[in-house]
Amino acid sequence: MNYSSENTLLYVENLSVAYGDKTIIKDINLVEKDVIRTGEVTGQVIAVVGRSGTGKSTFFKALTGLVKPTSGKVLIADTTTENAQNDAKEVHEGDIGFVDQKYTLFRNKTVYEALLFALRNKEMPKEAKHEQIVTYLKDWGLEKAKDQYPCELSGGQRQRTAIIEQIFSSGHYMVLDEPFSGLDVGNIEDVKNAFKLITKSHEYNTIIYSTHDIELAVELADSIYVIGYPEIDGKKMTYGSIVKHFDMKEIGLAWKEFGLGHLDIVKQIKNIMLQS
Amino acid sequence: MKNIFTPFENVSKNTRLMIILVWVLALFGVWFASSMGDRHLFPSPQQVLQGFIELYNEGLVVHIGSSLLLCFSAIIIAILISLTFSYLSTVPVIQPVAKALSKLRYLPLTGITFYLAILISDARTMQIWVLVVFMSTYLTTSLLSMVNSIPQEEFDHARSLGCNRWEVLWEVVVKGRIDYVIDVIRQNLAIVWMMLVTVESILVAAGGLGFLIKNSDKFMNHGRIIALQIVILAVGLSIDFVLNYLRKSFFRYSKI
């Protein structure tokens, strides 16, 4: 499938995070560019896979500005300016949306109140905010849950609310920590549809997610990073880092139905994960 | 029937009511049995009823009102002090002060009353401040525990929505945990209510239930003492019920 890569949307250089003496992740480098496909809006879907304890959650927190890196930097395209192609800015809290594994929401706000809160800093009239919320609630199947509190929502409804909240608040980037964990088949389909809705709505929209379901990573992502303990001079390190990158676009498997080629990538990833 | 003697067994609503009824009847049975004869430990139901009538005629309702007023005045001041310190305990420079306030609960009340007596001359104000000092330490302990038990994910969630640190404090801790504050007050109320009676019996000037107990105690009027205990228990349980009801009615999301 024809595509081209243009402006850099995400640039991570030598990212390391340590808590006290314990280094969790080190020397993480990655570059993700805006993917252009003629005739359709294509956002970016980036998967991060790796065994438990390799630092995926810490990487995500550093990526979203929730944890200060010990060294290195995370840059994103400054889409608030006219010239987004060339402007980059260092990431801060709130620049990149973050949906955690538990789909945390404000326990004291209904779905509508939570979404209105997420829009609080947007310069738009009250009526426009209301319209936007109503439209999203309809598109995402949350109309009936409008006045419900998080404790009254199903897992899928919570997750969709958490995602919309972040779309409203942070703009084009969103990190989801294990969005498929503990979901039934129907809810997994809901999340897949949510991914489509996000990536089809703007060129710059970029989803970064982690999962233990390698098949889902290979099926949905156009770029896959495997995090593991790197081996340097024959010695396995105790910190997490990117040990392999699969560019599904380059391989020719992105945006295609899951087939034999995908299965081969699944095997390769599983092998790498077991070795690292 | 065998089920009601088996651990972790679920019983029907009717069975549960029946069990409660049997226990209440057993309590009355023991009461009647232990209050019969010439020498008895507890006053008879007739004596307690007589005690109720005497207390009512002596202005029991006014005394209950006086105790409640003292309780609410003290609780409002104490909760304001405790909330301020607990919320600000998230600020590193205030945290040691909040923790120290919580630790002061080990101080004996006598020492506190001594210094308060030097500072305050009015008996009613003295009663209020003895309770405030005492309650603030316990309330701060519970509220600090409430703040500390908020999951990190909730703070991260607020931060990911672009909240600055003060907004995080306001949204997650202050607004997000109001129902917990009511529950903390409810849980600490039993201690406060118990202390209130003691405080009133030390400083009898303004009346109240504690004053009535002290008076009855002096004349060894067992019927009145038990009648008062029942009133104090009933009023305490009513406040507990009202607070719980308010929490559930005003905060639909509250599932504590």
From TrEMBL, chain A:
Pfam families: ABC_tran. This is Polar amino acid transport system ATP-binding protein. GO terms for molecular function: ATP binding; ATP hydrolysis activity. Gene3D superfamilies: P-loop containing nucleotide triphosphate hydrolases. InterPro entries: AAA+_ATPase (IPR003593), ABC_SmlMolc_Importer (IPR050093), ABC_transporter-like_ATP-bd (IPR003439), P-loop_NTPase (IPR027417). Residues 10-254 form the ABC transporter domain. Keywords: ATP-binding, Nucleotide-binding, Transport.
TrEMBL record, chain B:
The chain crosses the membrane at residues 61-83, 104-120, 126-147, 190-213, 225-246. One of its GO terms (biological process) is transmembrane transport. It comes from the Bacteria. GO terms for cellular component: plasma membrane. Keywords: Cell membrane, Membrane, Transmembrane, Transmembrane helix, Transport. Pfam families: BPD_transp_1. Belongs to the binding-protein-dependent transport system permease family. This is NitT/TauT family transport system permease protein.
